[in-house]
C-alpha cells in the first residue's frame, strides 16, 4: 500500500475550509457582500446561528475539497448573538481554522434613509423609532467591530462599488466570471421577462416557408446552413459578438455576474435557435460560461 498516497487522500478529505464571517449593521449591505462571495465560488449560509459555525466548518472539512471556502452571515436576527458567537470563535481558534470577519458599517443617516425607502422596521427598534434600533444594534456589535479584519463603510457606496471592494479583497488575481444564458424564443409567445438583452432575428428569411425545412428546427444542420447563408446573417453574428464583448467588460466592472440574452424570431423554432447556438459558441470561445435554452422550441 502506498502510505504517502493514502495520507495525501486523507488530508484532502479533512482539509479545513477557509471561513469568512460577514456581519455588521442591518441595512449596511450584508446581503450584497454575501452574494458577491457566492458569485466568487464561496459556499454561503445566511443567518446561521453562531453556535453552528464550527459544525458547518467540520462538514466542509469532510467534503473532500468540494467546500473549500465558507462564508457565514451572522447578525442580530440571531438574538443571543454575542454569547454564542464568542464561544464559536474561541472554538474555531482552538482548531486553528483560518477565519476572517468582514464588518459592514454605515452612518445613522444612511441607514435611516435605507430603512425608510423600503418601509421596513429595524429588527431591534421594537415600539421605538428606527434610530433607536440602530443605536441598540451599534452597541451590541461594538466589540465585534473592533475584532473585524475588514471594515467597509457603505454610507456613500452603491451596490456596484461595494461589490468592487469585495472583489478586490477576495477575488485574488482571478477576474470575476460573467455567466450568460442565451435563450431563443418566439415573439408570438411573448418576450422573456428575465431578458437583459433582446436580439431580433426576424430580419432574416424564415425557413418556415421552405417546405423541406419546415419540420425541422434550428438545431438541424440544413436549417442552420440556410439561415447563415442569408445576406447579413454572418455579419450580424460577428458584429453582435463584438458588441457583447464590450458589454461584458462593462458588466464585470459594474459587478453584474449574470446576463440573459434573448434571441427571438416569429415562432422560436428556426432562426432564433440557429442564431442562439452560434452566439453561445462564440461567447464560450471568449471565456464566458454560457448556457443555451430554447424556450419555445417544440411548442408548435
From TrEMBL:
<feature type="domain" description="RapZ C-terminal">
    <location>
        <begin position="180"/>
        <end position="297"/>
    </location>
</feature>
<dbReference type="InterPro" id="IPR053931">
    <property type="entry name" value="RapZ_C"/>
</dbReference>
<dbReference type="Pfam" id="PF03668">
    <property type="entry name" value="RapZ-like_N"/>
</dbReference>
<dbReference type="InterPro" id="IPR005337">
    <property type="entry name" value="RapZ-like"/>
</dbReference>
<dbReference type="InterPro" id="IPR027417">
    <property type="entry name" value="P-loop_NTPase"/>
</dbReference>
<protein>
    <submittedName>
        <fullName>RNase adapter RapZ</fullName>
    </submittedName>
</protein>
<keyword id="KW-0547">Nucleotide-binding</keyword>
<feature type="binding site">
    <location>
        <begin position="24"/>
        <end position="31"/>
    </location>
    <ligand>
        <name>ATP</name>
    </ligand>
</feature>
<keyword id="KW-0067">ATP-binding</keyword>
<feature type="binding site">
    <location>
        <begin position="75"/>
        <end position="78"/>
    </location>
    <ligand>
        <name>GTP</name>
    </ligand>
</feature>
<dbReference type="InterPro" id="IPR053930">
    <property type="entry name" value="RapZ-like_N"/>
</dbReference>
<keyword id="KW-0342">GTP-binding</keyword>
<feature type="domain" description="RapZ-like N-terminal">
    <location>
        <begin position="18"/>
        <end position="173"/>
    </location>
</feature>
<dbReference type="GO" id="GO:0005525">
    <property type="term" value="F:GTP binding"/>
</dbReference>
<dbReference type="GO" id="GO:0005524">
    <property type="term" value="F:ATP binding"/>
</dbReference>
<dbReference type="Pfam" id="PF22740">
    <property type="entry name" value="PapZ_C"/>
</dbReference>
Amino acid at each position: 500500500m502506498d502510505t504517502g498516497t493514502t495520507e495525501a487522500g486523507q488530508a484532502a478529505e479533512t482539509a479545513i475550509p477557509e471561513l469568512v464571517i460577514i456581519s455588521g449593521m442591518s441595512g449596511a449591505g450584508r446581503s450584497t457582500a454575501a452574494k458577491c462571495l457566492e458569485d466568487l465560488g464561496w459556499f454561503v449560509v445566511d443567518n446561521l446561528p453562531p453556535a453552528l459555525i464550527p459544525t458547518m466548518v467540520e462538514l466542509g472539512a469532510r467534503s473532500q475539497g468540494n467546500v473549500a471556502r465558507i462564508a457565514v452571515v451572522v447578525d442580530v436576527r440571531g438574538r443571543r448573538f454575542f454569547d454564542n458567537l464568542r464561544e464559536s470563535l474561541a472554538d474555531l481558534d482552538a482548531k486553528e481554522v483560518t477565519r476572517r470577519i468582514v464588518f459592514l458599517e454605515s452612518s445613522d443617516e444612511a441607514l435611516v434613509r435605507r430603512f425608510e425607502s423600503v418601509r421596513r422596521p429595524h429588527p431591534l427598534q421594537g415600539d421605538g423609532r428606527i434610530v433607536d434600533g440602530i443605536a441598540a444594534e451599534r452597541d451590541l456589535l461594538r466589540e465585534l467591530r473592533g475584532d473585524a479584519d475588514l471594515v467597509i463603510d457603505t454610507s456613500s457606496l452603491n451596490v456596484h462599488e461595494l461589490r468592487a471592494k469585495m472583489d478586490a479583497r477576495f477575488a485574488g488575481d482571478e477576474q470575476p466570471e460573467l455567466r450568460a444564458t442565451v435563450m431563443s424564443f418566439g415573439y408570438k409567445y411573448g418576450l422573456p421577462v428575465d431578458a437583459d438583452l433582446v436580439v431580433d432575428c426576424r430580419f432574416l428569411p424564415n425557413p418556415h416557408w421552405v417546405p423541406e425545412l419546415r419540420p425541422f428546427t434550428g438545431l438541424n444542420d440544413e436549417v442552420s446552413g440556410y439561415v447563415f447563408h442569408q445576406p447579413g446573417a454572418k455579419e450580424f453574428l460577428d458584429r453582435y459578438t463584438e458588441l457583447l464583448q464590450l458589454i461584458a467588460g462593462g458588466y464585470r466592472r459594474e459587478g453584474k455576474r449574470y446576463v440573459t440574452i434573448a434571441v427571438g424570431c416569429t415562432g422560436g423554432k428556426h432562426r432564433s435557435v440557429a442564431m442562439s447556438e452560434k452566439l453561445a459558441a462564440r461567447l464560450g470561445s471568449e471565456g464566458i460560461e454560457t448556457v443555451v435554452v430554447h424556450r419555445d422550441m417544440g411548442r408548435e
